[in-house]
Amino acid sequence: MARPPKSATSARSAEKKTEKEVKGPDHPRSVGWTRPQRVRLISATCPFHLEAGGSIAPVDVEFETYGRLNSDKSNVILIVHALSGDAHVAGWDAEAAERGRKWRTRKPGWWDEMVGPGEPLDTEKYFFVCANVLGSCYGTTGPLDPDPDAGKPYGLRFPLVTVGDWAKLQALLLDHLGIERLFAVIGGSLGGQQALEWALAFPERVERVIILASSARLSPQGLAFNAVARHAILSDPNFNNGDYYGGPGPREGLAAARMLGHITYLSDEAMYRKFGRRLQGKSAPEFSFGIEFEVESYLAYQGKSFVERFDANAYLYITRAMDYYDAARNWGDGDLTAACSRIRSRVMIVSFSTDWLYPPRECKELAMAICRNGRPITYVMIPSAYGHDAFLVEMLELGRLLTDFLSKS
Amino acid sequence: MAGDSRKTKSDRLTEILRLWASRYSAPLENLSTDKLVGLIERFLTEKPEQRARRRRAPGRWDHEIIERIITPGSHVLDLGCGSGELLERLVRSRSVRGQGIEIDPEKVYECVGRGVSVFQSDLDEGLPGLPDNSFDFVILEETLQTVHQPVKVLAEMLRIGRRGVVSFPNFAHWHIRLELGLGGKMPVNGSLPFPWYDTPNIHLCSLEDFMIWAGRAGVKIIEGHVLAEGQVRPLREDDNLFAEEALLVVQNGR
């Protein structure tokens, strides 16, 4: 009954982080070179109706698949990505250079450590599908794509989209691929909310649902962070009411939004460990407003590199979808337990002790709502110093849980 | 006390036993003088290996009993399910719908490794909003003595479950009494293997204590089993002295 001492856990996490290996395309546990696929799921004549009202057409969806679909199509796992994620989960994008996605030439997909032959999300056993969400900037229709009515990019004319819309569109993609039932759906953070939405909207289509660092709704603190992030973008002098394509664009605003994001993804403890109060490349402060501390340098780098790969309008739309998501309101008239009575899947929810974006308390509340319905629920809180980021860092514990939950339950 | 010298030692002991029985209203333990002397003698002379043999408890003796008690296909909640062995067994042999609750992260991982649904939580935080009678059985296997608020946990067990199954070490087992009474030390043995400074057991009670609580709380004991002298057998009148561990099936009597 004894808890492991906190310090021991933290020390282990620290080791793991430094040992993090990057698998090259020839690595035996890498999915190797990948090619994004694109499909027009919604034609110009048959619009996709949106939860918030209105509709959109046409809609293209970019997605990737890994592994092999078995003969009875019973081994499909849908991976759903988070706020700044994309369909490129694992491996090395063979078309990165020609499509101008040069950041992908430097590193593999966002969950490469977890997905591959012999990895916890084993491509030898399962067939994985991941699609970029509507309103994003990675190949699925979004605000940077041409608005057929205006003859120029949508910008803020793009309609507001929701997590519910995303799940519906993913379901349409699976229809298109001829896949009726999912062996599992897995997502972390905003991806976790999509996974939950799957359990609620398509209870008969999904056998297992894995929700990482996520809950039934974003906390007021989370709403506040998103508000500040959007404010930074909206008030950037180059924002130009969203019609900035072809111009300089709200680079500083988007960078500031990302810097704030990174603060929320870490934790107090993680920052102490990662940076402490160390100065950046100097032994004494310069008494200036330049970059003095390591943590400042880190945030500046994160902001700058994000601007190279993300669209500010997409950031507005996706954070809004994150804000609005409320499983209890959408499916249970405000009552989360009533909402969860729809669930037919086996659900595993994993939280991380220092996550303050989706705190363990709220993840547990969702788990309890499922439990109250007499549905089997697995809820695990992993002790970690890495805050919200832990779902991309704590590979050892998480890998073990994913392997076991998928193969045993 | 002039008369005392005429009494034999045995007479005096009998008198003490009578006094004991009246003071502690312990009719369950109608001990004869010979029996008492026998126990003390055993306590003082028994070699460790003899004791170990006597305590040769069959692995998880209570699992077998619980398996017999649980109706096939029922909905079972195991509070403090550890690494999930019991639930796994019940799912296999009794086709139950099982849900565990466990606080220790490593044990929680082991549950997931067995395919057992497990909710990581502290029982002392309660089980907010689990509906009344929503489980056919709620199990508290060797967990009661480890929680901060045992009575609250028991009350939750009886509210959520139609029946409760509770097992715990009996702190009034004769050997424990003598270890503390004659030896003057906190007992460390098969049922209570931890030293006082490093033990999860913070609310030890005797079988009799539990019965008194049950009587006051209006809780019915439907069935009882004990581990005594390495044997598993139905609960007897004198088991407050002889049971090392007890397993009781309980139900709200009100």
Roughly how many Å is the radius of gyration of chain A? 21 Å
- Profile the largest sheet of chain A: 8 strands, mixed
- Poorly predicted runs of 5 or more residues of chain B: none
Largest interface, and how many residues on either side? A-B, 28 and 28 residues
Number of domains of chain A: 1
| Fraction of residues in helix of chain A | 25-40%
Fourth-tier CATH superfamily name of chain A: Alpha/Beta hydrolase fold, catalytic domain
Coarse morphology of chain B: elongated
In the CATH hierarchy, the third-tier topology of chain A is known as Rossmann fold
CATH architecture of chain A: 3-Layer(aba) Sandwich
Roughly what is the average pLDDT of chain B, rounded to an integer?
89
Order of helices and strands of chain A: HEEEEEEEHEEEEEHEHEHHHHHHHEHEHH
Helix segment tally of chain B: 10
Give an overview of the whole structure.
The complex is a heterodimer of chains A (409) and B (254). Chain A is α/β, with parallel strands linked by helices and 409 residues long. Chain A has helices at 6-19, 103-106, 163-176, 190-201, 220-234, 251-265, 268-274, 294-309, 312-324, 327-332, 336-340, 360-372, 390-393, 395-408; strands spanning 33-34, 37-42, 48-49, 55-56, 59-66, 76-80, 92-93, 115-116, 121-122, 127-131, 146-147, 152-153, 182-188, 206-212, 346-352, 377-382. Chain A has a single domain, classed as Rossmann fold (3-Layer(aba) Sandwich). In chain A, 37% of the residues lie in helices and 16% in strands. The longest helix of chain A has 16 residues, at 294-309. Chain A is globular, with a radius of gyration of 21 Å. Mean pLDDT of chain A is 94; it is low at 1-18. Chain B contains ten helices and eight strands. Chain B has helices spanning 9-23, 33-45, 48-54, 61-69, 85-94, 105-114, 150-160, 174-181, 207-217, 239-242, and strands spanning 75-79, 97-102, 118-120, 135-141, 161-169, 219-228, 231-234, 245-252. Chain B is elongated and about 70 Å long. Chain B starts with 8 loop residues before the first helix and ends with a strand. The model of chain B has no long low-confidence stretch (mean pLDDT 89). Chains A and B meet through helix 12, strand 16 and helix 14 of A and strand 2, helix 6 and strand 3 of B.
